[in-house]
Amino acid sequence: MSKVLIYAEIKAGKIKKSAFELASEGRKLADALGGDLGGILIGSGVESFGPELAKFGVDTVYVAEAPELENYNSEYFAQALAQAITETSPEIVLITHTMQGKDLAPRTAAKLGAAVMADCVSFRLEGSTLIGKRPMFAGKCFAECSATASPQIATARPNVLEVVENAKAGAISKIAFTPDTSRSTYVTKELNLDTSGKVDLTEAEIIISGGRGMGGSDYSLLEEMAAIFGPRATVGASRAAVDAGWRKHSDQVGQTGKTVTPNLYIACGISGSIQHLAGMGSSKVIVAINKDPEAPIFTKADYGIVGDLFKVLPEFNNELKAILAE
Amino acid sequence: MKSLVCLKQVPDTETQIKVNADGSGIVTDGIKYVINPYDEFSVEEALKLKEKFKAGEVVVLSIGPDRCVEAIRTALAMGADRGVHVCDEAVNNGDPFVMAQTLAAASGNIEYDIIFCGHRAIDDDFAETGAMLAELLKIPQITLVTKIEVSADKKTITCERDIEGGKETVESPLPCVVSSQKGLNEPRYASLPGIMKAKKKPVDKKTFADLGLTPDAKLVSKNFSMPGSRQAGQKFEGMEPQEVAKTVVQALRSEAKVI
Ligand SMILES: Cc1cc2nc3c(=O)[nH]c(=O)nc-3n(C[C@H](O)[C@H](O)[C@H](O)COP(=O)(O)OP(=O)(O)OC[C@H]3O[C@@H](n4cnc5c(N)ncnc54)[C@H](O)[C@@H]3O)c2cc1C
Ligand SMILES: Nc1ncnc2c1ncn2[C@@H]1O[C@H](COP(=O)(O)O)[C@@H](O)[C@H]1O
Fold first, then answer.
1. Residues A119 and A46 in one domain
2. Which of A155, A165, A241, A280 could serve as A97's disulfide partner, Cβ 3.0–4.6 Å?
3. A166: closest CA of chain B, how far (Å)
4. B159 with B245, same domain?
């Protein structure tokens, strides 16, 4: 029995940092409710991640393993998660709002007759009721959300909740899971994971974005900066750059692209349209480089540089290299 | 190929959102409404499938107040065949479970090979209705889809979908629910003849009672608030590139402490 259960996402043989974010938050909630924190690992050969979860406050690590769980599959993972929830009857279930979480959480919730407080950026308790604060309209406003069904299921935005070490026993408890294969589902034919180790926009700590001001598909100055920062940084784009075919659709930041909350967002040659600002406005620190002093992006930027990006960026990269080498 | 497209009407992305005085929601005065951009991708893809198979139907299904008819008509003007509008005072727009339940009930009277949802509605940003609908109908879901290929016998579908840091190709039996992601296609504009024709296409209006539903919301949204307003910070003008780069990089380290 756990009062709070977190789902720990595993990708490409690694447990995600977001699992530790959930464990840390789950620990706080479980303590406040005076109960245990459970963590569920779903997959094949995933038990070995148990100790990592325990480090961040998980009392009991539930493990559901089956050959059908080798690759992520909506139906089988939702069955496994729903079974774990039914067997451990937590009051609160936390999942991360990653692409996998967005696929898994609602399907699991529907199996249990519940809905998901999606994409929460913070949590609090009112008695035993979980209140999740969540952005709406891509961050143009916020609302507090609570659930009337049981369990209370929420997804948390990655990269926002704090990670706190708090070692617990992490006793392993197996869930005897056999998938119901009479339910039709898809099969994965091909997985193309970007092996460059490039972090996804939604999980990056630093994002360097280029807009129409880049003037073409040569983003090497931005790629160079991302490389200087290392694997926690990645390159994004405005819709104008995506529509021009300079960057992939998956690079688009904004109301109809990705909503991002990095520690540092560097906007290069981006004017700051309402749709773009909606997607990156809650970044912790914003730097803008734009040659137009009136560009709306400057109203949101903590550091606004009026100038030609092609002149500023090479110098910026030199300075970064120097300071990061220190 | 018969497609059912679930379409939501949402405020235009240009809208400056303001929270109302008691924090129970947003100020709706003067808002211009449009088809949810992701649902536009769905309409386009459904039309393409009908064109490819040279047969079939595209039905658009929308839940919401009277004004939603405009969104349905726009989809009809793009080329969809008919609309179903679930319009009821009891609609709670903030609950994806009720939406999925209603879509599931309404789909019972419609023939389809595939159901399209948007990856998310850009107003409430839940990104969950499609997957819930699939579960309620006990059919597969393929979310975040950027490419679709349907077999000649219309029994299987192959899709490319976004996953963090990559792509996945999956194959599923039909019918299934597909959720449209940016990159799937470029939606067409409604033509003038299309707009004329749309006026005569049927839109069937239904209430919850017609569908035998008593909505039972699972989520409550309240205490709406505005984001902490961001103040413009320091602006550097007329400085040499090297000087400004040095100043800002130093500030990012010692002042903002992010690098
Ligand atoms: C339904 C809908 C959804 C949308 N969703 C999104 C979305 O999700 N994301 C998004 O980004 N947009 C979105 N848009 C588009 C949005 O309205 C803007 O058109 C877009 O964000 C503009 O991109 P931009 O800033 O790169 O281009 P522009 O607005 O053209 O700005 C380019 C900027 O570059 C500067 N510049 C040019 N050359 C240089 C140089 N050498 N050095 C420095 N600065 C330079 C210019 O001064 C200018 O400010 C959406 C629009 C609609 C209608
Ligand atoms: N009121 C509605 N009417 C029709 N379809 C809807 C409605 N609400 C949500 N949907 C569908 O579900 C998708 C995801 O919505 P959401 O879960 O609210 O982000 C939308 O893109 C639509 O396809």
1. yes
2. A155
3. 25
4. no
